[in-house]
């Protein structure tokens, strides 16, 4: 049985303590999941392939590149007439800080069992974290907003727009030296179903307040 989940933004003044807490928990988990996948060495999601490629070719940290990329993506919102929310701004700042902190304390994995554990744990945690911060209904992340904005302006499906964006991002990241591997494929196959699985349990609604 398919469960319908309402994800449209809700003003921050509605249940602010609960929803802001949920937002920040989700973003901290999201940043942690990114760091876990980068340390696995088995492949990253398309955006992180780009982030790693840029970081490897500059003196910037992975988190700094993540934040700068998010800001650049936000600039693309302007012609799409997208409006950022509290969640959008928090997404840029919190994830960038958390991913660098976790990468600082978490060493690269060199044994296959440890690599696989980090990869699978990172993917599952990413699906959960996405559902948690999106479910707070405080505004989409920069990349999600770009996807929905392009879909609305072009009348293309969200699936088609997301696929097109991630193929371009993945190609650029790979050319810059980002890590593409089995983790990239697993992430692409698993992240949608995992996020959908968790959303009904964590999405804020007046009925659950």
Automatic annotation (TrEMBL):
This is Putative membrane protein. The chain crosses the membrane at residues 20-38, 58-78, 85-106, 112-135. The keyword Membrane applies. The lineage of its organism: Bacteria, Bacillati, Actinomycetota, Actinomycetes, Pseudonocardiales. It comes from Saccharomonospora xinjiangensis XJ-54. It holds the Pfam family DUF6198. Keywords: Membrane, Transmembrane, Transmembrane helix. It comes from the Bacteria.
């Amino acid at each position: 049985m398919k469960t319908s989940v309402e994800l449209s933004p809700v003003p921050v003044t509605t249940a602010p303590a609960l929803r802001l807490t949920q937002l920040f928990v989700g973003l901290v988990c999201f940043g942690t999941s990114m760091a876990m996948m980068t340390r696995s060495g088995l492949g990253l999601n398309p955006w992180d392939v780009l982030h790693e490629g840029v970081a490897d070719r500059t003196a910037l940290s992975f988190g700094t590149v993540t934040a700068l990329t998010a800001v650049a993506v936000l600039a693309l919102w302007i012609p799409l007439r997208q409006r950022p929310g509290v969640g959008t701004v928090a997404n840029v700042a919190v994830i960038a800080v958390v991913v660098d902190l976790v990468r600082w304390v978490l060493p690269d994995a060199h044994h296959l069992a440890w690599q696989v554990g980090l990869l699978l744990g990172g993917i599952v945690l990413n699906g959960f974290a996405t559902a948690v911060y999106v479910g707070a209904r405080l505004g989409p992340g920069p990349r999600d907003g770009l996807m929905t904005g392009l879909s609305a302006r072009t009348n293309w499906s969200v699936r088609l727009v997301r696929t097109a964006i991630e193929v371009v991002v993945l190609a650029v990241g790979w050319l810059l030296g980002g890590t593409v591997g089995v983790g990239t494929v697993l992430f692409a196959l698993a992240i949608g179903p995992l996020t959908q699985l968790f959303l009904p349990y964590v999405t804020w609604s007046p009925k659950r307040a």
